[in-house]
Design brief:
heterodimer; A: mainly alpha; 0% strand; B: Alpha-Beta Plaits; four-stranded antiparallel beta sheet; two-stranded antiparallel sheet
Chain lengths: 381, 135
């Protein structure tokens, strides 16, 4: 039983049903029923055309449900006969589903949940586990999201940027719980890249692949964070890096730069350095300048200060930092790092301890506390 | 079975016997402490007594209603607040004695110099559902 095949087909079937004019929530229920049926039937009777099979079964399930509904409400004229077979599925069906699930009328958390459920084909339980919330809570979030998008028509293409933001969010929170959301985000972005030719989709896919390639080296066996400079680069996945770089280069060649391509370019420069000392920080600063131009995001300026500290020395980095708002998340951690590079260990230790108190997650808090402890131990010698 | 909350305080409880701020430990001592906490939670999962564990950021905000049509009032964080909760673990155990035993173990987590911290943990019983059989 090929579960991946089933999950890859889910968005196409759902897209076809929705394009036939079925209400989104009803279509989703029908597709889930068809998937359950496939799991039961396919092992003994594999279909020649899996997509056609699923579409037919889902359509029948929808008709059954609609008839039952109609009978219940004494409205027999709702749906009576099966329409002529619909058009063959096109990439547009899948694409339309991405746009619908990332619709701007949804909150970010709803769009993420709906995308994982409807496009990704994950169960509500899996999504709930991944985000560490009760299953009933996630079920409500998804059904509210379905109701929100149910009335929407999607004959017009949406804004691909909204879809990319959702996929980026899924990837970025990808390491909590037992569900591998990072891998799922990559799968969904690959599928999107196959359906639409867009340099920023390629840019995001490249960014994900390049970061995913470092995953094994990012944490020590005891779960502590290993900073980029200290990672064992032999544990980076060279196959993923090569693929990411290739996708990025093809995207950049089209000369329509966007923020994800620029971020991927920075990740590629890190991936390209055989040792941390050989990192091309000058080029990285140039890419951060592009990113500042594209997004004017204060967090980007903060990361740029770190790069400036490497390219032009810690004093230059501290000067770049001084121009920024000191309430930015991770500002204090960056200050601590630059002070350490500058040789001011006492200030660095104090700021690391301060940064630990402000840390947004346990892994970072432990890491920053350790940095403070390391410098304090040096100071006692 | 009865559920208990094990509360860890940044401050507010009596001072730990072996009270040294964590940034004054060595990195190896920090690792040993973290490992102890992880092992403790894993052991409780294995015995079927673990329910939940969470850590909190040290600073928060106080919020209250300010009347119809008005945004809520926020205040804080207050540097002078006496009691500061660091995190909790919820356990589901057979008896009060078992809860005390586990809290004692958790308080023995190693700190500076590898010695047990002896920190004070607050043990609070959950208010449960009323029993079905009452006579």
């Amino acid at each position: 039983m090929d579960e991946t095949l089933l999950r890859n087909l889910t968005p196409s079937v759902l897209g076809i049903l929705v394009r036939r004019g079925i209400d989104f929530a009803a279509a989703e229920d029908a597709v889930q029923d068809a998937l359950v049926e496939a799991v039961r039937v396919w092992p003994v009777d594999p279909p020649r055309d899996p997509l056609g099979w699923l579409t037919t079964v889902a359509w029948r399930r929808f008709l059954d449900a609609a008839r039952a509904d109609a009978a219940r409400r004494r409205r027999e004229d709702l749906v009576d006969e099966e329409p002529a077979p619909g058009p063959a599925p096109t990439v547009d069906d899948t694409l339309a589903l991405y746009f619908l699930c990332a619709h701007p009328s949804l909150t970010a958390s709803s769009a993420v949940a709906l995308t994982l459920r409807a496009v990704g084909g994950l169960t509500t339980r899996q999504i709930a586990h991944a985000y560490l919330v009760p299953e009933a809570t996630m079920a409500q979030r998804i059904s509210r999201a379905k109701r929100t998008v149910s009335g929407l028509r999607f004959d017009r293409p949406g804004d691909v940027a909204t879809v990319l933001r959702v996929l980026y969010l899924v990837f970025n929170e990808g390491y909590s719980g037992d569900m591998d959301l990072a891998a799922e985000a990559i799968r969904l972005t690959r599928q999107l890249a196959a359906a639409i030719d867009h340099p920023e989709v390629a840019g995001l896919l490249a960014l994900m692949l390049l970061h995913h390639a470092r995953r094994a080296a990012r944490t020590a066996p005891d779960g502590t964070l290993v900073p980029l400079a200290e990672q064992d680069r032999s544990r980076w996945d060279t196959r993923l890096i090569a693929e990411g770089v290739e996708i990025l280069q093809a995207a950049l060649a089209r000369d329509q730069l966007g923020e994800f391509q620029a971020q991927a370019a920075i990740a590629a420069l890190h991936a390209d350095a055989p040792t941390a000392a050989e990192t091309d920080w000058v080029q990285i600063v140039e890419w951060y300048d592009e990113l500042v131009r594209l997004t004017d995001n204060p967090v980007v300026r903060l990361n740029r200060a770190v790069a400036v500290g490497e390219a032009d020395g810690p004093r230059a980095g501290l000067r770049a930092l001084a121009a920024l708002d000191d309430t930015l998340p991770r500002y204090t951690a960056v200050a601590a790092y630059l002070h350490e590079r500058d040789g001011d260990l006492a200030t660095a230790a104090r700021r690391y301890a301060e940064a630990a108190r402000q840390a947004p997650n346990l892994a970072e808090r432990d890491h920053l506390t350790r940095q403070a402890a390391r410098l304090n131990a040096l100071g006692r010698r | 079975m009865a559920k208990y909350l094990l509360l860890k305080h940044y401050r507010g409880g009596p001072a730990a016997v072996h009270d040294v701020p964590m940034d004054q430990w060595t990195p190896a001592e920090i690792s040993a402490h973290m490992q102890y906490m992880r092992d403790f939670a894993a052991r409780l999962e294995a015995t079927g007594e673990f329910v939940d564990g969470q850590a909190l950021a040290p600073e928060g905000t106080f919020v209250r209603y300010d009347g119809p049509g008005r945004p809520p009032v926020t205040d804080g964080p207050f540097a002078e607040t006496k009691d500061l909760i660091a995190g909790w673990m919820v356990i589901d155990v057979d008896s009060y004695d078992r809860a005390v035993e586990l809290a004692g173990e958790l308080s023995a987590a190693p700190g500076a110099g590898g010695k047990p911290i002896h920190e004070w943990l607050e043990l609070r019983p959950f208010l449960s559902e009323p029993p079905t059989i009452t006579e």
